[in-house]
Amino acid sequence: MSFSQTELVNAMRLLSTRLPQFPEQQNQVSRMLRIVTERLSSHLNENLKAFGINENLWFSLMAVYVSPNSEILPSRLSDLMDLTRTSATRLSDDMVERGWVERYINQKDRRQIVLKLTPSGKTFIHEVWPQIARQSGQAWEDFTKEDYDTLQHLLGKLLNRLGN
Question: What are the CA-CA distances from residue 144 to residues 32, 46, 137, 149, 151 (Å)?
Fold first, then answer.
């Protein structure tokens, strides 16, 4: 990849001289956020490839795992993952096909389908997690608790302004 932070700064500075009231710093940060997000995603997907999965499937499986009783409604999975219902259904289908999740009808509301983590799904998470944590953690190793707190606060602030 040939991205250069210096070139980005220079391009934004040039834009601010050519466009009246161009928010140089805001656009620079926005562009950097996008690049960082894409690189984090690529890095995680590269690590997950060895296990035959991608980040959406991994985070979906983790969402089921951390839900009360390791059960989740597909609509809740869709909301947590910020995906369409169709995409969440595809991920659910994939988890069921792999034997990590099973579907059953909610006995309290028979209109609802519930996804429940299987022992195989739990085993898979426990096998994969240590390796993913180690590999992904390398990108973050220079961050202090204060760095995390600040970044989380600022990203949360931006996310709130962008709305749900």
Answer: 20, 25, 13, 9, 11
